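Recap quiz, item 2
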Amino acid sequence: MKIVTRQVTDKPLTVTIEYPELTESVKGLVKRIEKLDVSFSASSDDKQMRIALSDVYYLENVDRKVFLYTKGDVFRLDSSMADIEKAAEDSDLVRISRTCIMNTMHLTGIRQLKNSHLEAELDNGEKLIVSRKYLRDIKRRF
Amino acid sequence: MPVRKILKDTCILAALMILAVFTCSIIWSGLTAEITLVLSLFLLALIITVVNFLFDEFLSLSILVSYILKYFVFTGIVMLFGFIAGWFFPSNFWMAFIYVGIVLALAFAIDAFRVNRDIGYINEHIRSNKSQSQNRADLT
């Protein structure tokens, strides 16, 4: 399989699959890509917008309210953490603690701190605490 | 890892065999002292597993503090359970500290090793994914 990527400005993200024959593996590939096309309905300052999964850095449950963090913004979500996990099944989202779901797409590394807590670093420099219990779930994503 | 899966499946199968054999024994000959002991151990294991789950789910402590806290809590549970089940004489209840200590020391060593191995695995894959996408970007 040959993978070709190219930057095309002024167009939304488009995935084109060329195949000699529509086999089960091609259908599987399409299904997997479709699963990646998840977005969340979020609000910020009374404005509703859709946030693509690739823009999500992490989601956090604070006082029973779910917040979605992108590279530099924070949005409020109406869904519960369980709903999010269900919607983003087989995606790059993974639970890292009881209150936090992280997008492994933006993960740059995990390290153990001196007090043996685990810390995940994202590509925007943000650091999140990882519960040891969920480390194996993160491992399964790679 | 096949070795781990075989060991895990062996333990589950052994537990099922014990339960099946003992169920038949209870039906034929009622509760004997041996059967009561094994069922008590199953009950104790269930209580400890539930408490351990709650610990991991609701407390975010460092690995060492978490194991020290678990040591005292689990020892307390074993002692209380042991007194109720009549396992300990008043003079040897401190043996619970040794039993729990041995099990937790092993669990701590395995946990610490596994965490380090998993962190290494994840970081290695992040590095290799990054270099792969870098190569793809260079090609296009």
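Chain B touches chain A at residues 56-58, 60, 62-64, 111, 115-116, 118-119, 121-123, 125-126, 129, 136-137, 140 (CB under 8 Å).
The mean pLDDT of chain B is 85.
End of item.
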